[in-house]
Write a structure and sequence with these properties.
seven-stranded antiparallel beta sheet, about 25% strand, eight-stranded mixed beta sheet, D-amino Acid Aminotransferase, Chain A, domain 1, alpha+beta, binds pyridoxal-5'-phosphate, D-amino Acid Aminotransferase, Chain A, domain 2
């Protein structure tokens, strides 16, 4: 059943604002039936200078790259999309996140759409108040540390199926399945291995490991989504004198790791307390996750000297 919660927001759809409940697609649209919708998502943070959009340019560039990988001929370019996102955040005060979606709205029969016009929708909203609060079930607080399940059988985002770099809805089916099994088994999050059985990423997070020798590693970007938080954490670590290597990590290294943490737009820096039920390290959160999590939080509110340019400030209407 559709969710008819009374959300009073306006969504930018192909250049015009429409009420939240009118931003719909047909049930037979290509995007829905074939999972061809490409999207990107970033945070909108309340700062003393007003709402700030986190790394807008990098997120829009990734959206365009995803469209290119999936062959979606989006008619809008970088500058136009950035301007539309700013306009949408301005039109929706109190929003905490913004999602841009490029999709075939056309009703189609075949896997290759005949009508190649790509729609662009931009929604700025508060995920908690506008979405989660209206969903069934008791309110769920986001965990501060997670119990991780290592999924060894199902892979996701294989280069020989759909590029792991593409943020396309079809790429989230394996994540949905694996994470729902992990949740049923009492875990909070799931982690995938890649085709070579090296650690990869979660359904919506990247992975960092501080190994037994203190070396900080994250899986190479060729086999995972180039997370903007991952990139930001690497840059923050370097500016703090902490070296981060983009290198393979074998699953067995999790058992001896000092720290494991996940990163993502929603997750921030999320420490892992256990993997498959075995505790990680001596303390959780560990010192590296704490340090980088604090640094990231300061950049999100525009309080980290040298990183103010990561936020695009939106002046009120
Ligand atoms: C597969 C995958 N990996 C990693 C991430 C983290 O990326 P970001 O830090 O840009 O949110 C995401 C984001 O949703 C994702 O979908």
């Amino acid at each position: 059943m559709p969710n008819h919660a009374p959300v009073d927001r306006r969504i930018w759809l192909n250049g015009q604002f429409v009420p939240w409940h009118e931003a719909t697609v047909h049930v037979l649209s290509h995007s829905l039936q074939r999972g061809s919708l490409v999207f990107d998502y970033t945070g909108v943070h309340q700062t003393v200078r007003g709402p700030g959009i986190f790394r807008l340019d990098v997120h829009v560039a990734r959206l365009l790259h995803s469209c290119q990988l999936m062959g979606l001929p989006l008619a809008y370019g970088q500058a136009e999309i950035e301007a539309a996102i700013i306009e949408t955040v301005r039109a929706n005060p109190g929003s905490r996140a913004v999602k841009a979606s490029a999709f075939y709205a056309s009703v189609e029969v075949d896997v290759v759409p005949l009508d190649r016009r790509v729609s662009l929708a931009i929604a700025a909203y508060d995920p908690q108040a506008d979405i989660l609060a209206h969903l069934p079930g008791p309110p769920r607080a986001r965990p501060r540390t997670v119990r991780l399940w290592l999924e060894k059988k199902t892979h996701q985002r294989r280069e020989d199926i759909v590029s792991p770099q593409a943020k396309v809805s079809a790429n989230y089916a394996s994540g949905m399945m694996a994470k729902s099994l992990a949740l049923k088994a009492g875990f909070d999050e799931v982690l995938f291995v890649n085709e070579d059985d090296q650690l990869a990423e979660g359904p919506t997070t990247n992975l960092f490991v501080v190994d037994a020798t203190g070396r900080v590693r994250t899986p190479p970007e060729q086999r995972v989504l180039r997370g903007v938080t991952r990139l930001s954490v690497i840059e923050l670590a370097h500016s703090d004198g902490i070296a981060v290597d983009e290198a393979d990590i074998a699953p067995h290294e999790l058992t001896t790791a000092r720290e494991v943490f996940l990163t993502g737009t929603t997750a921030g820096v999320l420490p892992v307390e256990s993997v498959d039920g075995r505790p990680v390290g001596e303390t959780c959160p560990g010192p590296v996750a704490t340090r980088l999590g604090d640094r990231l939080r300061l950049t999100l509110t525009g309080e980290a000297p040298g990183f103010e340019h990561w936020l695009t400030y939106v002046q009120p209407q």
